[in-house]
Design goal:
Number of strands: 0
Distance between the termini: 33 Å
Oligomer: single chain
Shape: globular
Number of domains: 3
């Protein structure tokens, strides 16, 4: 299991890195071939359909907790698996029916700013993406099973293959003139194949016990109570990160949505990096909560600080790099002219979410302790505040205004309230956590100076100069962080990873 954990972390970052590389090559082609309007439409429909993922009702997050509880009892585990499989099949069916029903009301959903042709295409896109979501819902429970058994190598490899295959199929079709409809058809096909593979692995390799007899209503009630607040969190996350597109659909139209969609892509990449490690440690967190009981505080504090430091140093590399190189990259390489505002929108979204990203192992800790209800309440208030503030700001200031609304709510909730909750309620020593984060400050001095020099004195006349400066900045950042910010354990981890004897 230990090897699975280490390999899972390595493969997670490898998969993430490859995903980013593919996206940086793939998405510019999509944006240019689809055009600003159709890409905006594709982004809008995708964000709306994503709300159907809420039909998981938070049960996926609950599975790990109850798996850890029943792991030693094969009979109860079989009943648990049968219950979850039945539930997810039913929920996927309900999601499909609701999604297809909503597709008959595109104007009411997407706004009157869209043309008749755009509304017609939106309906087609929605139906196909609804099917994709339905498959993903059923797939979610099998992913949870694989994660619970800590089969991270298989899980990450399958995800990596799916990530690579999708653009390789889509790109030729896009170049042949096929639009967004074919794009979502291929994506749905890849999702279906991936689903069949992970089902085969669970049934034939893991040989998970499954029983559809002895349906325990009391257990379902217990799971439902636990999942309720996970569901509320999911609803709130959807509001905080996707409602902006809906607001823009009603106030601005598809072109503004396209700009926001580009910013969301970068925001999603940074978010992926933050969840890569914490997702692998989810079973470990649940094990600590179950095995140590009320003595979990010290273990959680140490784990949160260790993971938080790593996430912090990695995330700052990408966000600081984006500050220095992002504007040129978006306009001259990634999206093209007309997407200038995507730079400032990305900065607002990423900087406001940074605190929550390098603390996101805390979400797993809340779930493991069944103390995630408070987060739901706080995020609910955040969501209401986000919508209340964003609508008038969007009407007066467009895309920048709606982004500021999101930034204010996220900073208040994640930056202040949740840290107080971790410290006061979960008894995680957040003073120690922040001290560990601030201990890294020395390593940032040289990168800040390097980045400031590049921004002030270097003109990116061509891609060659841009790439050279980017390479120099990464080398300066990594070297400085390794020598001045990383502790001995982190340095040894890096040495073990690279297999080299590096000394400062």
């Amino acid at each position: 299991m230990k090897n699975q954990l280490k390999a899972g972390v390595v493969l997670s970052y490898l998969s993430t890195a490859i995903s980013i590389i593919i996206q940086l090559i793939y998405m510019p082609v999509i944006i240019r071939l689809l055009g600003k309007s159709e890409y905006g439409l594709y982004s809008l429909v995708s964000s709306v359909v994503s709300y159907l993922s809420l039909f998981s009702l938070g049960f996926t997050g609950a599975y790990l907790r109850f798996f850890a509880k029943f792991y030693e009892n094969r009979e109860k585990l079989a009943s648990l698996n049968g219950m979850f499989l039945s539930l997810f099949n039913l929920l996927a069916l309900i999601a499909a029916i609701c999604g297809i029903g909503l597709s008959y009301f595109p104007e009411q959903i997407f706004g009157s700013k869209l043309s008749d042709a755009e509304l017609s295409k939106a309906r087609i896109l929605m139906v196909i993406l609804v099917l994709n979501i339905s498959i993903s819902l059923i797939s979610g429970i099998f992913d949870a099973v694989i994660g619970a058994y800590e089969q991270f190598i298989f899980q990450r490899i399958v995800g990596l293959i799916a990530t690579i295959v999708n653009p390789f199929i889509c790109l030729p079709l896009l170049l042949m003139g096929y639009g967004s409809v074919m794009l979502v058809v291929v994506t749905t096909g890849v999702t279906l194949v991936r689903f069949m593979v992970i089902v085969w692995f669970c049934v034939c390799k893991i040989e998970i016990p499954v029983s559809f007899h002895g349906f325990q209503w009391s257990l379902l009630k217990e799971i439902s109570v636990f999942s309720l607040f996970l569901l509320i969190n999911m609803i709130i996350d959807q509001i905080n990160w996707n409602v902006d597109k809906l607001i823009l659909g009603h106030t601005s139209g598809t072109e503004e949505i396209a700009v926001y969609g580009v910013a969301s892509q970068f925001n999603g990449l940074f978010m992926t990096f933050s969840t890569t490690i914490s997702s692998v440690f989810s079973p470990r967190v649940n094990h600590i909560a179950v095995s140590q009981g009320e003595k979990y505080q010290e273990a959680f504090t140490t784990l949160m600080a260790r993971i938080g430091r790593i996430q912090w140093m990695i995330l700052v590399l990408f966000i600081s790099g984006f500050i220095v190189f992002g504007r040129f990259f978006i306009v001259h390489i990634y999206a093209g002219e007309g997407y200038e505002d995507a730079y400032i929108v990305t900065l607002f979204l990423t900087i406001s979410a940074l605190i929550s990203w390098f603390q996101n192992i805390g979400i797993e800790m809340q779930r493991a302790l069944n103390k995630h209800q408070f987060r739901s309440i706080i995020y609910f208030i955040m969501a209401i505040g986000n919508v209340t503030v964003s609508i008038p700001l969007a009407m007066h200031y467009g895309i920048v205004g709606v982004t500021i609304g999101t930034m204010i709510s996220v900073l208040f909730g994640n930056g202040l309230i949740m840290n107080l909750f971790y410290h006061k309620v979960l008894k995680i020593n957040m003073i120690y956590f922040w001290k560990e984060i601030f201990r890294t400050w020395k390593g940032f001095i040289l990168p800040v100076c390097c980045g400031s020099f590049i921004m002030k004195y270097v003109s990116f006349e061509n891609i060659g100069v841009f790439l050279l400066c980017g390479f120099i900045y990464v080398v300066v950042y990594c070297s400085s962080i390794y020598c001045l910010s990383c502790n001995k354990e982190e340095q040894q981890m890096i040495l073990d990873f690279w297999g080299k004897n590096i000394k400062c």
